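Action item from last week, closing it out:
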Amino acid sequence: MTLASLLLIAAAILIAAYFIYGKFVFKKFDIRNDRVTPSHKYQDGVDYEPSRPIVVLGHHFASIAGAGPIVGPIIAVTFGWVPAVIWILVGGIFFGAVHDLGSMVASLRTEGKSIGTIIDNTIGHRGKQLFMLFSFSTLILVIAVFADIIAKTFINNPGVASASILFIALAIVFGLVNKMVAHRKSLFLITSIIGVALMYYFVYLGMQLPFKLDYQLWLYILLAYAFIASVTPVSLLLQPRDYLNSFLLYGLIIFAVAGVLFANPDIKMDSQVHVTSENLGYLFPVLFVTIACGAISGFHSLVASGTTSKQIDKETDAKVVGFGGMLIESFLAIIAVGAVIVLSRDEYASTLVAKGPVTMFSDGLGAMIGSLGIPEGLAVSFVALTVSAFALTTLDTCTRLARFTFQEYFEGVEGPIGKTLSTNRYLSTGIVVILSILLISSGGFTTLWPIFGSANQLLAALALLAVAVWLIKKRVNATFVVIPMFFMFTVTLTSLGIFAWKNFMDQAYVLSIIAGGLFVLSIVLIILAKKSLATYSALPQTQN
């Protein structure tokens, strides 16, 4: 089998899924345009800002993608490329796309608020508090980790740092110009073409003008940037940067497909399925935790219900942004698998240890793009820069999401403190940044990172739980959400149980307690959801 045939088959399945299964899901969520979206109802020029579907898709896709759909699938190939591909396709269509769209639509019907507020309305205030504490802690962890990763990337690749700075400056100019031509489609198209052309030029220019600073200084600059990105109007910096950056990833996908079709390499890796891995453990549940982005990721629910729902112009835009955006990411994950299965299993295993997944992806895809006549070194640098650009997107998006989560947690708290913490975006963002600095300074994030995969997938299970209860209380048959929810709870509870026991036996008691705490949290929320639904259990459900 050739890699080209694998990509074409995967693309055909994902496109068919959008039009066939997507139609069923859209009907279930009763998506229509006679409802006023939160972006219009609460438009404030800062967080709530109605925007074109292509702009929102760019922001959403850039925010949910990051390095996740690249790193996870490549590591998961350890169990075999066949189970990895199957989970990406099945998970992306029946789990991830439903999860992302459900989170987005539920938020659109709840004033653009996050999954935490939806839990408050459907399961209860205690459930909201537990969920938001968990999601806030997870976001702080992600901010700390990605600030460290990006700072080290900038040190090792000063050209990437220069290009990233140029991207930010370009985004601000593009955002200002876009405001002036917002109602003229032809001018928006022209400015987009110019913006994308300049962005690609800045890839080259950044490599010619390397910018060098030490680690500590980069760390503070990155967190200062994250602070500014969180409090600045979304249409000025975050949205235009993500929109332009999305064309880097679109370009990467187009170049990758063209390179694969032109080179038409064979799949050298055998199709054997490995039930266990010496380093990772058992295929179940590890495969389903390792491949998060690309199949289903709890982080997506925070983006969909945090920033994206506040920018949706018409409710039907959620179809392509939520459901379609997830399927595009699934295809990117397939490309990531393809970049390494052109190696034999022995070559893959040794290279993964020596270079890591991101370098493997850059080298593998760069070689295929090089077959188009593009210098291979430039192609490899382009792929590496694209991955780094999306890591920066994850950093600034997470900071804004953490700010939303913090503010929503204190909504309804009486007194001046509650009012200040729930309304002052500068103070809440400052607290987020300070906590991130403290976490980085303590070095604790390196210890917590191994548990992040399980925590992220638990977040997905909890988001599906919230969406399922929301639908059931509207007397909609929620089986299409409930089945993925039960599977994800099974995966995460099994993973957390194994993780807690293993670390307890290794005397890593802190990690064991954290894993055990997450396990208990999920059980408590399930019980609260069951109690909340008790009064509705006797009511007949209607088909939408």
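Closing note: The chain has a mean pLDDT of 87.
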